[in-house]
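User: Here's a chain of 114 residues. Predict its fold as tokens.
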Amino acid sequence: MWDIIISIKSGATTMSDASHFQDRYHIRFQGRRTTVTLDKILSELIAMSFGLTPDRTDYHSTVQQWLQATLTDKLGASVPGGSSISQYARKYAIEAVARPDLMEQLWDWRLQGG
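Assistant: Prediction complete.
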């Protein structure tokens, strides 16, 4: 249906850098590039929902695949441009992770030095 190319920039540079708290996903829909920004905590929780800790090498690709599938499924052909695509991404991520057991898994992993 769509020719989709996705790449990720994950920033964890300095505490003062906003990218430390967000992951950026560059998505191409029908030849048009758009950037989706997702809070890092939401990316981590999405990964945890698939049984992956955020330090795994397949963490970003898993979140990327979930994000692409979810946005395509929920928005279909009416994918909005501009900043609203990131708002939809956050909305769907929050809906997906609004489970107490996922938050508990993430905190357990963090407390173990992850």
